[in-house]
DNA sequence: AAACAGGACTCAGAAACCTCATT
DNA sequence: AAATGAGGTTTCTGAGTCCTGTT
């Protein structure tokens, strides 16, 4: 092997000490566990500080690791398909290409001609009443270079958050046990913190608290200090521990309650009022067409809630004034008036931008844009382009794969790293991984993977463990090509150690530049889109049309889930999850018990049946035990008692309402007799170990039927519960919204007769209008 | 000419809100 | 049949990607 030695790489992008702590360069340090433990603490999934012993990490992952394995096998199959298809596409390229161009797009259509055509189409389709003329851009996609986004643009600017309203006199921030008077500006900052005491992820994060307190102190100083509200003495606020925001929190909480408790009519009226004042901002006119604006509200001041270990989390995000806002609008349009006594920072007429307004936030200097909503034409068009780009990759994917497979053995280190990186991006759907600054959370993507994120397990298993976008953990044990394994080992060779880049010769722009050679516009992220949609397409392809709508929807969601897992889209486990799961197992156990009782009844009816079916059949199922049975019986009894009591109370209420007399306690006792009987029955069963047959004309056959029915119910419940458990930390939404070509879903809907409403919510239907209206059931990704 | 800053866009999960079933 | 609560939907805004222009 003639690879450049890693040492040759003296110049690192970021000045990192690379020759200290030699001890850690030992080869075998690779196999050490390199936990992200400390970093993980504040990530969305709180991990107990002490729980980072290696044993529990793989354990927690075990079930999903199996999934991933079967998925990767399936992926292999899909890759073969991809190769075949790529070849096929190239073979009859001339034909296909013609087909691909949108129908009716004959070379240069004059705008007026296309407008006419468009009208004609609209005419013979029934038109939505309120949508006078829809613009079917997907039937005539512009080929232009796309730099000019609009010709005319009119809009009404932005909505500012309400001014700060000081707290009532009796609601105070407390310090060292004393109520404190603050200048409204400082008090506002106190309310930022005080109103979010329930947000434990933030309020229990030391960095958050430190940053907030620093800023809070600054505000107090700037506004003339804090005073004891009783004595008027100056108070020096110097210890966060002595701060008490409870009263503020309680006030906010009470306000929330008050608002919630408002009569429905009042709530409705308030909402109508708000809608009315905001109506002018909801829409804009874009090239003469009415388009929905997305986020026309300026972000209100608050505490910055950076994700993961963001160094600036907790800092005060200041109120945005008109003087900071740049407006982008058509030359001939009326510029929206800034609030009384204010003016805009600037008014632009940038036709290459799709934004209507913009400002820079004070914490990271990040740009904030007001843009159109997801259902607008511009957004739809770029969405369409994105998926077409991904589809284009189909034609090249086999070449690209062959090429990187070959280059895994390239002589030059850069080439090898390039090939290995693309391998990972393609196989694991990793993000590109730009360099990040000092004052951001330390997260990585492919190019920025660190030494400690990769653990090599001979012969060719690699464990990836890192925090990706939004500090979401990526953990996976993957079987890789032996050459990739070798390469990674080389890339990790001493003197590299903790903190060093695995791909020290790569940058995202270099990688993307390389990708452009295969296909214009090809970048790392296209692979994510391509692989997600391609996976979905193949999963759906393998489906047979059986079952009812609900079952088909489930199949669709299962495929969706596979894609979500591929993309590592996660959510935090709902607080109620464990509880729900427990309830479900209880219910299953209840059914199992019911079933067992039926079997016992059989024994009473037919003395020979025990031999016939075997003793095993009649034994108490292993998941139940004596103790559980007792408890369950008691629960059943209590449940029934409660039910009867409730019914009794209700009946009585009714009687009173109708002017009748209340029923006596005797009546209740009588009704409760059934419960007593049940209790007695259980007692007897426990004692005699026999269950008397129930129901009219009990027979072994009937019981068997009943048992079958219960088995069915148990099965469905089990599936449900397993489903729930497997899905508890998988977020389906992100892939549905951003990665799966919506036309796939539309085709599925048409082909299998599943109403599109079952797959797409209202907003998604609007966003994917172009997909819903442009394909029929033989479209393929 | 690589490296870097600026800028504009897509993608991301949490929180807020709404809805509908259950009791 | 009002309350509850769980699940789905929408909003919010932070966090990426990637392009461009400048040095």
TrEMBL record:
<dbReference type="Pfam" id="PF01028">
    <property type="entry name" value="Topoisom_I"/>
</dbReference>
<dbReference type="InterPro" id="IPR013034">
    <property type="entry name" value="DNA_topo_DNA_db_N_dom1"/>
</dbReference>
<feature type="compositionally biased region" description="Polar residues">
    <location>
        <begin position="102"/>
        <end position="113"/>
    </location>
</feature>
<dbReference type="GO" id="GO:0006265">
    <property type="term" value="P:DNA topological change"/>
</dbReference>
<dbReference type="GO" id="GO:0006338">
    <property type="term" value="P:chromatin remodeling"/>
</dbReference>
<feature type="domain" description="DNA topoisomerase I eukaryotic-type">
    <location>
        <begin position="303"/>
        <end position="753"/>
    </location>
</feature>
<dbReference type="InterPro" id="IPR025834">
    <property type="entry name" value="TopoI_C_dom"/>
</dbReference>
<comment type="function">
    <text>Releases the supercoiling and torsional tension of DNA introduced during the DNA replication and transcription by transiently cleaving and rejoining one strand of the DNA duplex. Introduces a single-strand break via transesterification at the specific target site 5'-[CT]CCTTp site in duplex DNA. The scissile phosphodiester is attacked by the catalytic tyrosine of the enzyme, resulting in the formation of a DNA-(3'-phosphotyrosyl)-enzyme intermediate and the expulsion of a 5'-OH DNA strand. The free DNA strand then undergoes passage around the unbroken strand thus removing DNA supercoils.</text>
</comment>
<dbReference type="InterPro" id="IPR011010">
    <property type="entry name" value="DNA_brk_join_enz"/>
</dbReference>
<dbReference type="InterPro" id="IPR008336">
    <property type="entry name" value="TopoI_DNA-bd_euk"/>
</dbReference>
<protein>
    <recommendedName>
        <fullName>DNA topoisomerase I</fullName>
        <ecNumber>5.6.2.1</ecNumber>
    </recommendedName>
</protein>
<dbReference type="InterPro" id="IPR001631">
    <property type="entry name" value="TopoI"/>
</dbReference>
<dbReference type="Pfam" id="PF14370">
    <property type="entry name" value="Topo_C_assoc"/>
</dbReference>
<dbReference type="InterPro" id="IPR013499">
    <property type="entry name" value="TopoI_euk"/>
</dbReference>
<keyword id="KW-0238">DNA-binding</keyword>
<dbReference type="InterPro" id="IPR013500">
    <property type="entry name" value="TopoI_cat_euk"/>
</dbReference>
<dbReference type="GO" id="GO:0005730">
    <property type="term" value="C:nucleolus"/>
</dbReference>
<feature type="coiled-coil region">
    <location>
        <begin position="668"/>
        <end position="727"/>
    </location>
</feature>
<dbReference type="InterPro" id="IPR051062">
    <property type="entry name" value="Topoisomerase_IB"/>
</dbReference>
<keyword id="KW-0413">Isomerase</keyword>
<feature type="compositionally biased region" description="Basic and acidic residues">
    <location>
        <begin position="73"/>
        <end position="101"/>
    </location>
</feature>
<dbReference type="InterPro" id="IPR014711">
    <property type="entry name" value="TopoI_cat_a-hlx-sub_euk"/>
</dbReference>
<dbReference type="Pfam" id="PF02919">
    <property type="entry name" value="Topoisom_I_N"/>
</dbReference>
<feature type="active site" description="O-(3'-phospho-DNA)-tyrosine intermediate">
    <location>
        <position position="739"/>
    </location>
</feature>
<feature type="compositionally biased region" description="Basic and acidic residues">
    <location>
        <begin position="17"/>
        <end position="28"/>
    </location>
</feature>
<feature type="region of interest" description="Disordered">
    <location>
        <begin position="1"/>
        <end position="132"/>
    </location>
</feature>
<keyword id="KW-0799">Topoisomerase</keyword>
<dbReference type="GO" id="GO:0007059">
    <property type="term" value="P:chromosome segregation"/>
</dbReference>
<dbReference type="InterPro" id="IPR014727">
    <property type="entry name" value="TopoI_cat_a/b-sub_euk"/>
</dbReference>
<dbReference type="GO" id="GO:0006260">
    <property type="term" value="P:DNA replication"/>
</dbReference>
<dbReference type="GO" id="GO:0003677">
    <property type="term" value="F:DNA binding"/>
</dbReference>
<dbReference type="GO" id="GO:0005694">
    <property type="term" value="C:chromosome"/>
</dbReference>
<dbReference type="GO" id="GO:0003917">
    <property type="term" value="F:DNA topoisomerase type I (single strand cut, ATP-independent) activity"/>
</dbReference>
<keyword id="KW-0175">Coiled coil</keyword>
<dbReference type="InterPro" id="IPR013030">
    <property type="entry name" value="DNA_topo_DNA_db_N_dom2"/>
</dbReference>
<comment type="similarity">
    <text>Belongs to the type IB topoisomerase family.</text>
</comment>
<dbReference type="InterPro" id="IPR036202">
    <property type="entry name" value="TopoI_DNA-bd_euk_N_sf"/>
</dbReference>
């Amino acid at each position: 092997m003639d690879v450049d030695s890693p040492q040759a790489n003296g110049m690192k992008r970021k000045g990192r000490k690379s020759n200290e702590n030699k001890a850690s360069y030992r080869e075998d340090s690779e196999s050490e566990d390199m936990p992200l433990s400390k970093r993980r603490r504040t990530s969305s999934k709180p991990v107990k500080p002490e729980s980072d012993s290696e044993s529990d990490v793989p354990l927690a992952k075990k079930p999903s690791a199996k999934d991933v394995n079967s998925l990767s096998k399936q992926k292999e199959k899909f890759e073969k398909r991809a190769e075949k298809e790529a070849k096929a596409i190239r073979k009859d390229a001339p034909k296909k290409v013609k087909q691909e161009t949108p129908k009716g797009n004959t070379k240069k259509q004059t705008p007026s001609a296309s407008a006419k055509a468009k009208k004609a189409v609209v005419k013979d389709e029934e038109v939505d009443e309120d949508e006078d003329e829809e613009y079917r851009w997907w039937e005539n996609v512009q080929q232009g270079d796309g730099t000019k986004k609009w010709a005319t643009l009119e809009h009404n600017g932005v909505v500012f958050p309400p001014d700060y309203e000081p707290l009532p006199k009796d609601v105070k921030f407390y310090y060292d046990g004393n109520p404190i008077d603050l200048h409204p500006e400082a008090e506002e900052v106190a309310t930022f913190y005080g109103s979010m005491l329930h947000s434990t992820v933030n309020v229990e994060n030391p960095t958050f608290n430190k940053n907030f307190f620093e800023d809070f102190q600054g505000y107090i100083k700037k506004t003339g200090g804090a005073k004891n509200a009783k004595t008027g003495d100056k108070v020096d606020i110097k210890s966060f521990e002595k701060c008490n925001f409870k009263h503020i929190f309680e006030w906010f909480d009470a306000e929330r309650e008050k608002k919630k408790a408002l009569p429905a009519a009042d709530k409705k009226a308030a909402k109508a009022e708000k809608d009315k004042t905001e109506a002018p901002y909801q829409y804009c006119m874009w090239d003469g067409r009415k388009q929905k604006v997305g986020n026309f509200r300026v972000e209100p001041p608050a505490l910055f809630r950076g994700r993961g270990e963001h160094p600036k989390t907790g800092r005060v995000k200041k109120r945005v004034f008109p003087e900071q806002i740049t407006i982008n609008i058509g030359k001939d349009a009326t510029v929206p008036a800034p609030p009384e006594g204010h003016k805009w920072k600037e008014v632009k007429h940038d036709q290459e931008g799709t934004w209507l307004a913009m400002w820079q936030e004070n914490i990271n200097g990040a740009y904030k844009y007001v843009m159109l909503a997801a259902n607008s034409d511009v957004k739809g068009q770029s969405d369409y382009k994105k998926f077409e780009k991904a589809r284009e990759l189909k034609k090249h994917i086999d070449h690209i794969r062959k090429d990187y497979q070959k280059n895994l053995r390239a002589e030059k280190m850069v080439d090898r790293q390039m090939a290995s990186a693309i391998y990972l991006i393609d196989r694991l759907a990793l993000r590109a991984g730009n360099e990040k600054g000092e004052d951001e959370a330390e997260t990585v993507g492919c190019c920025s993977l660190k030494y400690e994120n990769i653990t090599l397990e001979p012969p060719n298993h690699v464990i990836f463990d890192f925090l990706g976008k939004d500090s979401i953990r990526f953990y996976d044990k993957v079987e890789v090509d032996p050459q990739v394994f070798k390469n990674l080992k080389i890339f990790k060779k001493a003197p590299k150690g903790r903190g060093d880049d695995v791909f020290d010769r790569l940058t995202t722009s270099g990688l993307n530049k390389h990708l452009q050679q295969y296909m214009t516009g090809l970048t790392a992220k296209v692979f994510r889109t391509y692989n997600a949609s391609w996976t979905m397409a193949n999963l759906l392809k393998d489906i047979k049309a059986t079952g009812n709508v609900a079952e088909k929807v489930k199949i669709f969601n299962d495929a969706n889930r596979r894609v979500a897992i591929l993309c590592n889209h996660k959510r935090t486990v709902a607080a109620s999850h464990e509880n729900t799961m427990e309830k479900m197992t209880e219910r299953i156990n209840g059914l199992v018990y019911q079933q067992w009782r039926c079997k016992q009844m059989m024994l009473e009816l037919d003395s020979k049946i025990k031999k016939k079916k075997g003793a095993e059949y009649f034994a108490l199922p292993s998941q139940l035990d004596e103790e559980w049975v007792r408890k369950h019986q008691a629960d059943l009894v209590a449940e029934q008692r409660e039910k009867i009591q409730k019914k009794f109370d209700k009946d009585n209420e009714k009687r009173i309402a109708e002017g009748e007399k209340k029923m006596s306690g005797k009546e209740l006792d009588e009704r409760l007799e059934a419960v007593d009987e049940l209790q007695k029955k259980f007692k007897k069963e426990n004692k005699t170990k026999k269950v008397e047959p129930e129901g009219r004309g009990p027979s072994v056959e009937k019981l068997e039927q009943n048992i079958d029915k219960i088995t069915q119910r148990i099965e469905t419940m089990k599936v449900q519960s397993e489903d729930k458990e497997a899905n508890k930390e998988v977020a389906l939404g992100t892939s549905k919204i951003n990665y799966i070509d919506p036309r796939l879903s539309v085709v599925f809907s048409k082909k299998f007769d599943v109403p599109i409403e079952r797959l797409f919510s209202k907003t998604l239907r609007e966003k994917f209008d172009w997909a819903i209206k442009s394909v029929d059931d033989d479209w393929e990704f």
